[in-house]
Amino acid sequence: MFKHISILVTLLGLFITVSTEAETMHPSTQTKVYPVAIIGAGAGGTMATERAILNNREVLLFTGAKPEKKRSRGHWVRAVHNIPGLTKYTRALVELQQETLAHIASGPFQHNLSVVEDSVVSIEKQAGLFKLVDKTGQSYLAKYVILATGMMDEQPHIGGSIRPILKFGNNQSVAYCIMCDGHRSLNKKTVVIGHSEEAAKAALLLAERYQPSKLTILTNGKAPEFT
Q1: Inter-residue contact 32 to 91 (CB < 8 Å)
Q2: CB-based contacts of 7: which residues, under 8 Å, 6+ apart?
Q3: How many C-beta atoms lie closer than 10 Å to residue 87's C-beta?
Q4: pTM for the predicted model, two decimal places
Q5: Distance CA 177, CA 158 (A)
Q6: Which helix (H) or strand (E) holds 199?
Q7: Based on CB atoms within 10 Å of each CB, which residue in 27, 38, 132, 182 is the most buried?
Q8: Mean pLDDT of successive 10-residue segments in the chain (227 residues)?
Q9: Are 140 and 37 in contact (CB under 8 A)?
């Protein structure tokens, strides 16, 4: 089904809470055809939405359902230090998205934006158009689809549950991207959770670049796959 999707742009996007004055859609719109449907309202999806709106194109934006939003990287990674100008934000990706969509909603092209606060569960090509169905069963038609579904990090299960890691994720003690946040380990006690070769490579990179005061690999009860 998905191999026939015509993608204008594929950008990194994250499912994040949307709060703007833009129109929220829920009815079945089989007879209405949107020029562009964008799946994902994170960094990439928001950027694609703004660009399409400024090109005076009507956009149908799917922000994602709550369960997907809570699993997204945008939900867990709050501080962004590797992009100039974003260090002032407490929750950079969320705040930037909200600012951008609010700007669209208050501007001259606001009529071009329709928002569906749900996830897409299927996409099917029909007579040159794409039929998109959300979790509620509502369907929509679009000429083009932009996939901006982004990253969803897998939380480590400790003792069979992700709960033990959540408090550390919530207080930003956990880094999900070593290239983005490895600098936070500078001269600090650091733990890498994992048993694969990738875990060992991550530990070596941290040791070489940031000299943690103590560096430990926790395999989480699994046999190490590295030597």
Answers
A1: no
A2: 144, 145, 146, 147
A3: 11
A4: 0.72
A5: 20
A6: helix 197-210
A7: 38
A8: 35 32 46 94 92 96 84 74 81 85 94 94 94 95 94 84 86 85 93 94 96 95 91
A9: yes
| Closest to 135 in 3D by CA, of 33, 42, 65, 63 | 65
The Cα–Cα gap between 191 and 168 comes to 12
Residue 200 amino acid letter:
A
Nearest CA-CA partner of 42 in 128, 133, 201, 152: 152
Q: CA dihedral defined by 217, 174, 88, 98, rounded to 10 degrees?
A: 140
Give yes or no for a contact between 8 and 146, defined as CB atoms under 8 angstroms apart.
Answer: yes
Q: What is the largest CA-CA distance in the chain?
A: 63
> Residue 134: phi, psi to the nearest 5?
-95, -175
Give the CA-trace dihedral at 114, 119, 124, 128, to 10 degrees: 20
DSSP string, 163-184: HHHHHHHHTT---S-HHHHGGG
Q: Are 77 and 180 in contact (CB under 8 A)?
A: yes
